[in-house]
Structures are given as C-alpha cells and as structure tokens.
C-alpha cells in the first residue's frame, strides 16, 4: 500500500498528511462478518472519523493538544466482504507494515475479531507484550457455533498466544460458565464488573512493559453507548472509561498499539456512541503517544 494514497473518506480530526513524520497511524477495520446479534460495526470507523469534528483538539484531562502528536489516518483497510479468513490476513499484513516503520497502530473496528490479527503482529515485534482488555464480554470462547474465527473468540486466541498471565481483563459482565472458569483458572488477570480500581492496582505490575490496549465500546453501559452490536446492561460510565484511559496514559507502561471496536452507528440516532469512541481515541492519541 502507498500510504500517501490510503485515505478513504474523512480523516480523524487533527491528522497529518505526512506519513514520514507520523508517530502513530489510525486505520479502520470495517468488518462485521462474524457478529452474533446485530451487524453494522463495519460502518463504525467512518462514522467515528466524521463525528470527531465535534471535538476540541485540547485535552483538559492530560493538558496536551492534538497538535503535539503527529498521527496519520490511513483510512479503512479494504476487506473482502463476508470472508473472515482473508480479512484477518489483510489486517495482519497492514499492521505489520505500520510496525515495521516504527509507528504505533491505532485501530478502529469493526467487530472485536479484528483485534486478533493485530495483537498477533504486535506480539511478533514485542515478545514481552501484555494486553489490557476493557469489554462487557469475556471473548474467551474456543469457537462460536463451530466457528473458531468469531467476535466471541479473540481473547482466547490472544491468551493462548501470549500466555494467559499476560492478559488483563476489566469490566467483564457477560460470558459462558466455561469462559469464566477458564479465566479464573488459567492465570488471566480477570476483573469482572469493575474497571478503574482494579486497573489502578494492576498497572504498577506492568511497569516498563509493552502493552496493547483494546476497548470494546460495549464496556460502557447501553445508557452511554447504545450503538453497538451486543449491548449489555450493567456497564461503566463514559467518565469511568476516560479515567481508565488516563490511568494507562499516566502510568509507566509503554503502549505499543491500541484499538476501539464494536461501534455500530445505526442503533444510535443520537450519535453519542461514535462521539464517545472519538473522544476515547483522542485521549488515547494524546495520552499514549509520548
């Protein structure tokens, strides 16, 4: 791919057009081929970019401006409709290219399966990798209705690849009995229901390590993010999610990649869901790119 020709539609607010100067790369993964309830997250990346125009470019939380970070918006990866195997392959190849240029990948989903090929590539570049996962769902199934490639399986694949002891899960409030039992016996740092305090307690143990952060927007209660494919009552507030991002940003971990996934704009005519995702991405960029 020629990165200077990679744009598709709008770009995220404040993005540079200078690939060479960019420290980070935003890219979309418009895929919802394996969802188990409501489709539509393939339209998430484009809408998050569009609504980002409502944001200020200054973070009053982190006291930094977006202009202090150089990031390039590469647009959406063109994925073959309905083909998860080839889509996963293309996502992985794209992210490997970004990492090979020494840049930090910031992904927009798309269903949560898209995180699997990204982490696989990040792990090849950073073998001491830890993954911080904020979600309503455990995503620890070995398969869903016989399909190993599913938005219900990415964290199981990641745990088996990097070691369960290197996976940190927060906010989980939905899953099968088998998923919860696997999380509790495998060595995963498993924190159901809550996010902020357990994350605060875990971060010191990750000091100095490369970390990948993946946020499923449904970690938020549906009152704050109705526009998602599998809403789950009992979640955290948008303020708590921002606080979690800021805890990571102010910690001594080295964020080497991040994503925010499962925004499905069609189910939220108020657009509070893509706006929340856009603000989270703004804080990630400002906070994670040092």
Automatic annotation (TrEMBL):
Cofactor binding note: Binds 2 manganese ions per subunit.
SUPFAM superfamilies cross-referenced by the UniProt entry: Arginase/deacetylase
Cofactor: Mn(2+)
GO biological process: putrescine biosynthetic process from arginine, via agmatine; spermidine biosynthetic process
UniProt GO MF annotations: agmatinase activity; metal ion binding
CDD domains: Agmatinase-like_2
Chain sites annotated for binding Mn(2+): 112, 135, 137, 139, 216, 218
Pathway(s) this gene product operates in, as recorded in its UniProt entry: Amine and polyamine biosynthesis; putrescine biosynthesis via agmatine pathway; putrescine from agmatine: step 1/1
Family matches, as InterPro entries: Agmatinase-rel, Ureohydrolase, Ureohydrolase_dom_sf, Ureohydrolase_Mn_BS
Enzyme Commission (EC) number: 3.5.3.11
Short name of any one Pfam family annotated for the protein: Arginase
Domain of life according to the entry: Bacteria
The reaction(s) this protein catalyses: agmatine + H2O = urea + putrescine
Keywords: Hydrolase, Manganese, Metal-binding, Polyamine biosynthesis, Putrescine biosynthesis, Spermidine biosynthesis
PANTHER family for this protein: ARGINASE/AGMATINASE (PTHR11358), GUANIDINO ACID HYDROLASE, MITOCHONDRIAL (PTHR11358:SF26)
Sequence similarity: Belongs to the arginase family. Agmatinase subfamily.
Biological role: Catalyzes the formation of putrescine from agmatine.
Protein's name in the database: Agmatinase
